[in-house]
Amino acid sequence: MSELLKIDGLTKAYPGVVANDDVSFEIAEGEVHALLGENGAGKSTLVKMIYGLVKPDSGQMTLGGAPYHPAEPKAARASGVAMVFQHFSLFDALTVAENITLGMENAPHRRELSERIREVSNAYKLPLDPNRIIGDLSVGERQRVEIIRCLLQNPKLLIMDEPTSVLTPQEVEVLFETLHTLSDEGTAILYISHKLEEIKTLCDHATILRHGQVVGECVPKEQTARKMAEMMVGASLHTPVKKNLHPGEVILNVQGLSLASKNPFGTTLKDINVTVRAGEVLGIGGVAGNGQDELLLALSGETASPRQMVQVNGVDVGDLNPNERRELGLLTAPEERLGHAAAPDMTLTENAMLTGNIRQRLSSNGFLRWNAARGFAKAIIEQFDVRTPSSENTARSLSGGNLQKFVIGREVLQDPTVLVVNQPTWGVDAAAAADIRQALMDLAEGGAAVVIISQDLDELREVSDRLAILNEGQLTKPAETADLSMDDIGLMMGGHMGDGSDNTTQEAAHV
Amino acid sequence: MDLSAINPLALIASLIVASTPILLAAIGELVVEKTGVLNLGVEGMMIVGAIAGFAVSVNTGNPWLGFLAAMFAGAMLALVFAILTQYFLANQVATGLALTLFGLGLSALMGINYVGKKPPSFPKLDVQFLTDIPIIGQAFLNHDYMVYISILLVAAVWYFLKFTRTGLVLRAVGENHDAAHAIGYNVTFIRVLAILFGGACAGLGGAYLSLISVSSWTEGMTAGAGWIALALVVFASWKPWWIIIGAYLFGGVTVLQLNLQAVGVTIPAVYLSSAPYVVTILVLVIMSGGRSSAPASLGRVFHASH
Amino acid sequence: MFRLEARPQPSKLWIGISPILAVLATMVAGGFLFAALGKDPFISIRMIFWDPLFGEFASYYRGQLLTKAGPLILIALGLSIGFRAGIWNIGAEGQYIMGALCGAAIGLAMYPLDAWYIFPLMVLGGALGGWAWAMIPAILRNRFGTNEILVSLMLVYVAEKILAAAALGLLKNPEGRGFPGSRNLANWASSANPDLIAGTGMHWGVVAAFIAVIGSYVLMQRHLIGFQINLTGQSPRAAMFAGVVPAKVVAFTLGLSGALAGLAGLFEVTGPAGQISIDFGSGYGFTAIIVAFLGRLNPFGILLAGLLLALTYIGGNVAEQEGLPAAAIQAFQGMLLFFLLAFDLLSNFRIRLAHSSVSKKEAV
Lengths: 511, 306, 364
What we know:
The complex is a heterotrimer. Chain A has helices at 43-50, 73-78, 96-102, 110-123, 139-151, 169-184, 196-202, 225-233, 292-300, 322-327, 348-356, 370-383, 400-412, 430-445, 457-463, 486-493, and strands spanning 3-14, 17-28, 32-36, 58-63, 66-67, 81-84, 157-161, 188-193, 205-210, 213-218, 250-259, 269-277, 281-285, 310-312, 315-316, 330-333, 363-364, 367-368, 418-422, 449-453, 466-471, 474-475, 479-480. By secondary structure, chain A is α/β, with parallel strands linked by helices. In chain A, helix 13 packs parallel to helix 14 (430-445). By secondary structure, chain B is mainly α. Chain B is globular, with a radius of gyration of 20 Å. The N and C termini of chain B lie far apart (69 Å). Chain B has one domain (9-226). Chain B is 71% helix and 0% strand. By secondary structure, chain C is mainly alpha-helical. Chain C is built from 15 helices and two strands. The two termini of chain C are 23 Å apart. Mean pLDDT of chain C is 88; it is low at 355-364. The interface between B and C is large, with 47 and 48 residues.
């Protein structure tokens, strides 16, 4: 195999942070090359430089032996470099064909393009209808659009940024098959991920980044996942310790919760039944967009349901608003940190007031006790090791991991009876993620009922006592986590309910 | 009261003339909003276009030069908006309001010496055999050229947005500016061009008002036409052809209430003269129900971060 | 090449400095404008900003300052609270007119009774009139999701038509020999709103404005409602999470700003204006938008900004007597808002040279 892309000493600095520091590696034709690193390690900046979105401060690239310095993505695509984004670069209101045209140079005429989309998508077993509107597609289908858009240009190098985070295990298998086919045809693939098992199965070679520098290279198949993880994090990892489970009384009781989504592209919740006991951690897995957000909103009180559908300690709370539920000890932490769990441009003190007002008594007769709020914010910062100059800094100024520690800490310190968190460690560095998981497990050990909604199955297997899967708005029957294999979980995610009935044929009510 | 004094054909002819200013301004604003930018300064750009077009026409005796000048003036004011919102990342609502307030003041200033003057007349489509066609001849085929240009403009915008690649890029920018940026389109540049186009159209609409439909200059003569144009874009659900329907509807209400006042209908004048504004509100209420077809990025600030 | 770099949080320093810079830049640009009109720019600027305070007839103009600033401040305070919630009421002019009309109507209905309670009733009527007019966009927005910007603005034109109809009909002075316009409310003791200290321009509206400054400071900084309003404007989803009901915020902020604008109208019609007339609407409702922004949506900032814009009004009058067109001042005020918006960039972004060195800062 001959060398395709050679990266030599790429450096890119932003004010306050060196995103890439003298990064060098090579990718051969037909090679599947993993770029491994934590959030903030500089992976995104690196691929943006390769794709022409960001200009390096210094360093060289050659593609197929010729100097390669794309000034913009168009130039990169013209040279045969294509990219599938993590947060898709798709337009909801436009059709599949229109979306694909937008990402191509010299796109053929409408009819011919539709023809080619059908052709290529069938050839790679990723069927797609060119006339459908993106907004109506599932997340997996949207990824196909991105991939087909790339494949139509016969790329020499395909960059994929965390492609599997949105897929079910089965969809991942299909994707890997496609990638193998491509690699056999001579297309090189630069595969960005932090999922080590995946990289072990798929990739020929791995470059590991930490703090913007290359800290190691390896052949993934010859390494243990743990070894690679430690190279990535730069320290030995501590796994949260699970104490013995002595579940107590049922605290949270969800009874036949059915609720239409407010969002036209959202998922309808269908007959969700689950109980959580004191001292227990319930994990809810599933691919994003299967009702996770809707479930959290129904539990937080942002959407009301018939009152008996949600009960806390035997009290009906389904029709209560968020603050009334907080009064009763039902606290939540939504997935989106900036803009939902916290107001980006408000200070940490103000963000402490945001949910702390009720249980911490931060106001009296409507008048705010700012000193008390500041004290509460400081307590969160101290006890959850939030790195920030002061409680008067804005939420936006914190890194993802620090803000998430603040958000989780804010709820944990209010001594909840039930805490529901959605994606508690998404986009958070490994050290912060470990702290957060430990805090949630400690909270359960202290007698609270904890519900963790997450897409990260490894995380759920690690921390939850029982596990259920959310699929198209339906929740499988929870099973003891210890009894479940990865295959079982995959089947549950594919729509096989825990009780053996098959729901894949049911129509998706949210289309 | 004698309703028979109202001649329906003359009514149609005059409603077309009354509608053209808002039609021109609205089709420009539609393009702007399709790129995800909300420019509330239409009123200001219109009135500056009105006086610029009027002044140049009066001084040169050539109405075509007047329309060109109006487009230029509207676009220049729009350029201020473009610089502030696209490069200085100012709030679009506030900047649009500033544009309107500034435009009203500036136009009054520019127009001091033009109050009471008459603009040169503007050529009409005066083809004898067309005008002689019964009914439609007089109502539709005997107007000034700008009326037909405005309809052609709508057709051109429709074709551009629906069938050209550039039009597709423009819509994409308005749908999701981050994605458009990620696949390599210059969001800011595309938006600036659209804003300038919107300004030119608003200027044109203003000039039509001062040069043709009113045929004189008075301070604040747009009297909310720019705002009605904004409402029209909502009414049209961002679809070009609906702009024509909407504009003629509003024009119809305006002309009809004037006619009714003239023939002395017993409805108090205050209700009649408020009718265009009340109808605008009603239409907004009707159109705001249901799933929105507004461009998804409308009004959001774009800043290409790393 | 310059490059913008987002600040992790807005610079407090620049938030304070940018209005001052904007005023200075407006003076320079205004100078060019006046020069283009064939006026000496230095003399024109002096006439607008200096003469009303320290010139030959300053003693007369100084009194005017409070008279003009009162309604601007009162309206701008209301608008600023809405703007903070992301509710764009730009129809304050209409609410101002409707407040004046309602208040005046209540008073005139009791003419020529001599009673202490008439003026308080009129004040209440003014607030209610403005409130009701603002509740139209509020209800339409809450019920149908209708854009409040366009509705509130359309209602300005409707209010102007009603004003004209009232001045010519319902409220016309029966002893006015056919001239349009109502009885003079300032000359009728029961409804008059005179200077509390002669010559200062300090009428009840100005007092109300000062009280409102304090009141809105307490509301926005110290009270839960203010916190919820700020939160709604900054991050609507976070506000929902914090238990805020968006419809209540819409109704509260629009209603409050309408009531304050209505009060401003009532104090104006019973004092400086004296009567309902066709041209009662004076553009205060629009200028107040500039005041609100120039004052950084902050009550004390608005107090200062209101005084400054009142100064430009009076300065405009002074300059008008010297031959400067009246419209110039309107263009001047619009320019001020442009410059303010432009300089705001500095509080949210740093401007850097493209290849500047790496500075010390927390990792992003």
